[in-house]
Specification:
Pfam families: DUF892. Keywords: Coiled coil. It comes from Bradyrhizobium stylosanthis. This is Ferritin-like metal-binding protein YciE. The chain contains 6 helices and no strands. The protein has 171 residues and is mostly helical. The protein has one domain: Ferritin (Up-down Bundle). Helix 1 packs parallel to helix 3 and helix 4 packs antiparallel against helix 5. The longest helix is centred in the last third of the chain and has 32 residues. It is elongated, with a radius of gyration of 17 Å. The mean pLDDT is 92.
């Protein structure tokens, strides 16, 4: 089912499709984060990514609950956007030899993922609110708040924990 196909006939269908999109995205992120952790060298970055990996597992559990509230089995639908962001992150990381510069790239790539998720969760919250799915709104809002916090932590690692400064002085 594409985003604007005949299979989406109602706002409820649109919400379910959106949940399937973010469910797929979270599954792909669960696969991508360990690779980012393995490549990162900055201790604060590694810690933050590990923490977010655990948060992502809980986010998937909340999405499972959202599907259950709608009487649906949790499932994902292929999301070319997250696939593209993750592919670009992998390609970029593979091209960088200097570890300090690689850490800066990992921060940027992780933030691209966070921004995608924040966009999706914000939209899903608005739709769930409109449809009166208050409990689903709570699940999604918790996920959104975690994504925002992860993005803020990434900013801190880049700016205050010296990742960008160290990368800028790399040869």
């Amino acid at each position: 089912m594409g985003l604007f196909t005949k299979d989406i006939k109602s706002m409820d269908d649109l919400l379910i499709h959106g949940l399937q999109d973010i469910y797929y995205a979270e599954q792909q992120i669960l696969k991508a984060l360990p690779k980012m952790i393995d490549k990162a060298t900055n201790r604060d970055l590694v810690t933050g990514l590990k923490t977010h990996l655990e948060e992502t597992k809980k986010q998937v559990e909340r999405l499972d609950k959202a599907f259950a509230k709608l009487g649906k089995q949790p499932s994902g639908t292929k999301c070319p956007a997250i696939d593209g962001i993750i592919k670009e992150a992998d390609e970029t990381a593979g091209e960088i030899e200097d570890k300090a510069v690689l850490d800066a790239a990992i921060v940027a790539n992780a933030q691209a993922i966070e921004h995608y998720e924040m966009c999706r969760y914000g939209t899903l919250i608005a739709w769930a609110e409109e449809l009166g799915h208050d409990e689903i709104v709570r699940f999604l809002t918790t996920n959104l708040n975690e994504e925002k916090a992860a993005n803020t932590k990434l900013n801190t690692v880049a700016l205050r924990k010296g990742v960008n400064a160290k990368a800028s002085s790399a040869a």
